[in-house]
Amino acid sequence: MRTVWFWICIGLLCLGAMSCERELFQDDLERIKARGELIMVTRNSATTFYQGPHGETGFEYELAKAFADHLGVGLRPLVAEDEADMITTLLQGRADIAAPGFAFGRSSARLVALGPGYLEVHQQVIGHRDGPAYQHIEALVGTPIAVTSNSARLEVLNQIKASHPGFNWMIPSDLSSEELMEMVWKRSLSISVVGSNTFTLNRRIYPELVVLFNVGPTRQLAWAMDPQSRHLRRAVERWFAMPETQETLQGLIQHYYGHLEEFDYVDLALFRRAIFSRLSPYRAFFEEAAQRYGLDWRLVCAQSYQESHWQPRARSQTGVRGMMMLTLDTARIMGLKNRLDPKASIFAGTRYLSYLHQAVGAMVPEPDRTLMALAAYNIGLGHLQDARELAERLDKPANTWHGVRSVLPLLQKKKYYQSVANGYARGSEAVQYVDRIRTYHKVLTSVLASGSSQLQEGG
């Protein structure tokens, strides 16, 4: 295991090795602009950077991309899972900023220059809801604990050990925080300590996990830079202080974390069981329909669960029916004769979602375009267009889901719905509809990745 002192030695060596080269480039910001790209070192995780269905994405990636756009350069992500490797990469000049998605401890912070804080995170002790209900540190003495080795977390654990000598932990070198969460969920590990942002983004996948209590102080996520990159650091500080940046930041927080605020353990536990017990007869229909109409079959599948819980004969009080819960008028337009036919319903519903996706327009980037199409499926295309017009009127970004999401509930207020073409609409319901589908989609994608063969066999 690499110790903090080892990291400090690495940092000092790197600083010495780079001193001659830095003399050739006094303005580090101009060097980035001349290169034409900002290089970010980060991790592969749900909180930082990964390849999504529409390309590179992740909270840290999109935030750094916004800064790179501000500078007029591209963004190139480098992946380094270990904190020491990130700092080495940074101090050797192979990256401009480090965005690990976790807070730096004091020992690491002394080696780098930190930018402004932009998201509060806590260290959280997590366990299984059916496991021991630990409520304080003393109860953890002698309990097997596994954690990842970021410096802020280790500082907290070492402080605990100083007053509780029997408190110990292990650091599996080849496991991420997400993998440790899965181990706790599978009951192969009693507890772990993870960052609150990591827990929030992954708790829907592992609904039986709970936060037992927080440990240590609240910290802020912040980008790290080489201390010699003075011009870059000033540019980062000025950019974060801009009102436009704060709006972008709030939009990203809403996009990645906002739809996770409400948590329904029972609903998600039922959904996980349904994936194995109910999906198998219909999976091929979802795959074929989505391929035909150019959509993600897992998203259509998640939408269908939100609509009907994969019940072919489902029926609502308003008369919509079937796997995709289509109205008679929509079914007729989509050429669907029997709404209770599972395959026909899936194909017609997927075709309709594809039509809405096209109607939203190519000027809306992904994934916002798909999220707006889902909202239109629930609330109607006319009401979605009303919301976009209202967003423009209120100086909200009308081509982003964040902007439209923020004004959809206003369609229930007389002051606003009287001023739009299509009048009153249950905008809050459309927001919840999209939020739930996003959650189901994420859970389904995770389950498929870990057990696709079992799903193919019907669970």
Strand order of the largest sheet: 8-9-7-10
Shape: globular
- By DSSP, the count of extended strands is 11
Oligomer: single chain
Number of helices: 20
Give the class-level CATH name of the largest domain. Answer: Mainly Alpha
Instruction: Give the N-terminus to C-terminus distance in angstroms.
Output: 40 Å
Helical residues, percent: 40-55%
Measured by DSSP, the beta-strand proportion falls in: 5-15%
Q: CATH topology of the largest domain, anyone?
A: Lysozyme
Mean pLDDT: 87
Please indicate the count of domains.
3
Give the helix/strand class. alpha/beta
CATH architecture of the largest domain: Orthogonal Bundle
Low-confidence stretches: 17-25, 452-459
* Biggest beta sheet summary: 4 strands, mixed
Using only C-alpha atoms, the radius of gyration works out to 24 Å
Care to describe what's here?
The protein contains 20 helices and eleven strands. A four-stranded mixed beta sheet has the order 8-9-7-10, sandwiched between helices. The protein has a three-stranded parallel beta sheet with strand order 4-1-5, sandwiched between helices. It starts with a helix and ends with a helix. It folds into three domains: 153 residues, 3-Layer(aba) Sandwich (D-Maltodextrin-Binding Protein, domain 2), CATH 3.40.190.10; 100 residues, Periplasmic binding protein-like II (D-Maltodextrin-Binding Protein, domain 2, 3-Layer(aba) Sandwich); 192 residues, Lysozyme (Orthogonal Bundle), CATH 1.10.530. Helices cover 53% and strands 12% of the residues. It is an alpha/beta fold and 459 residues long. α16 crosses α20.
